[in-house]
């Protein structure tokens, strides 16, 4: 246990009506953080991964948050209808496609990165499967950033959960009598990073929130590939001294020095207030 976690280990965080030990709080949300998965029309490589995503239920609806650039470069983008969430069914998993891609417009954005947020919506029941257990039930009031906290509140920690590309493995089995590989299994491993709010630099986008790695928790550089679409989560102490959980935003870009730009919760709340765009399929 590193010094950053050790100093907070006795805290309990209120999450979904339950008190969770601090060192398990971010891990408690992991099952709602997924590698962004695409279905491929290929019998051998039917699934591929690209970065991270967060599955959350807000105001009675199910949303997948990620980024547009995870679909590929402009001109060669994967169709959003090929994105799937994996649902266990017996001894295997099936991929379930979204009901709609929600287009997000930013009237005050000054560059491409600020328009990079992608939101997909899923019905409660899709193809006969109840999907609600796969989305984290988030109170609207828990869409919150550190700068919005009342003065009597205190930020305890920020954390990011993502699926670095270097931890994604494609396990290919070869047929005995053919050159073609057999069906492929894909394994992804999640990583947790503690962050701290940062002063803005020339690298940062004007309307995104900058963070850096918490130095006592993560010394040295990182490999940022795969961390786009990761949720940034905040734990703070409220006016009554109780540690609370909040969703602070989605990481849109990062660099090897451990600097992140995040589409913040205040802007996500504004999208909900505006009706969260229009569906495209």
Give the SSE string. Answer: HEEHEEEEEEEEEEEEEEEEEEHE
The number of strands is 21
Portion in strands? 35-45%
Using only C-alpha atoms, the radius of gyration works out to 19 Å
Rough shape? globular
How far is the first residue's CA from the last residue's CA?
46 Å
- How large is the count of helical segments? 3
- From the structure provided, what is the oligomeric state, counting identical versus distinct chains? single chain
Can you offer a commentary on this structure?
The chain is mostly beta strands and 281 residues long. It has helices at 3-6, 22-25, 265-273, and strands at 12-15, 18-21, 33-39, 47-58, 61-67, 83-89, 92-96, 100-103, 117-122, 125-126, 129-130, 136-137, 154-162, 169-174, 181-187, 191-197, 209-213, 231-237, 243-254, 259-264, 278-279. 6% of the residues lie in helices and 44% in strands. The strands form four sheets. Strands 3, 4, 5, 6, 7, 8, 9, 12 and 21 form a nine-stranded mixed beta sheet that branches. A six-stranded antiparallel barrel has the order 13-16-17-20-19-18. It starts with a helix and ends with a strand.
């Amino acid at each position: 246990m590193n010094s950053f976690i050790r100093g907070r280990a006795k805290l309990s965080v209120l999450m979904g009506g339950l008190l969770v030990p601090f060192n398990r709080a971010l891990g408690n949300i992991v099952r709602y953080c997924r590698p962004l998965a695409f279905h491929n029309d290929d019998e051998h490589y039917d699934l591929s991964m690209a970065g991270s995503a967060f599955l959350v239920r807000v105001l009675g609806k199910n949303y997948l948050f990620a980024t547009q650039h995870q679909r590929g470069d402009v001109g060669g983008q994967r169709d959003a209808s090929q994105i799937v969430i994996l649902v266990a069914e017996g001894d295997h998993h099936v991929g379930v496609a979204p009901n709609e891609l929600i287009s997000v417009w930013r009237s005050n954005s000054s560059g491409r990165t600020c328009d990079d947020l992608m939101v997909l919506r899923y019905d409660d029941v899709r193809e006969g499967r109840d999907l609600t257990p796969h989305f984290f039930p988030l109170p609207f009031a828990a869409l919150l950033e550190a700068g919005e906290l009342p003065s009597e509140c205190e930020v305890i920690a920020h954390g990011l959960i993502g699926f670095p590309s270097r931890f994604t493995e494609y396990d290919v089995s070869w047929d005995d009598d053919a050159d073609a590989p057999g069906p492929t299994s894909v394994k992804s491993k999640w990583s947790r990073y503690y962050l701290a709010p940062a002063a803005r630099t020339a690298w940062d986008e004007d309307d995104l929130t900058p963070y850096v790695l918490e130095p006592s928790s993560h010394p040295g550089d990182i490999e940022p590939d795969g961390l786009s679409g990761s949720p940034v989560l905040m734990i703070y102490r409220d006016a009554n001294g109780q540690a609370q959980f909040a969703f602070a935003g989605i990481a849109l870009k990062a660099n090897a020095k451990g600097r992140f730009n995040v589409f913040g919760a205040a802007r996500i709340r504004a999208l909900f207030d505006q009706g969260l765009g229009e569906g495209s399929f």
